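Handoff note, outgoing to incoming analyst
You'll be picking up this chain. Sequence as last confirmed:
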Amino acid sequence: MSKSSLSPLAFFKCLSEDTRLKTLLMLSIKEELCVCDLTDALQISQPKISRHLADLRKCGLVQDTRRGKWVYYRLHPTLPNWAKTIIEQTASSNTDYISESLDNLKCSSC
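Most recent structure output, in case you need it:
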């Protein structure tokens, strides 16, 4: 994905769903999370979170890395600065929106 390929319309459409938005906000705070971390945090099944992560990948918002049997996600490194700024400012200004999900994280590295 090039920095210019993400349109504002595609960006906001991809963020228009609660699970996807919370996932991106948590990734902006924690930098990297495993699928299992996200299932704990969001209290949803692995197939559902995987479907939402696939949507975020298609939008070019996240990048995944496989390490053994685990898949880790982070914000895509080529996100345009305007998109990163929106995600980071939304996360820092709306901690109450994701605080329960962050509290649900069970990973030892969090």
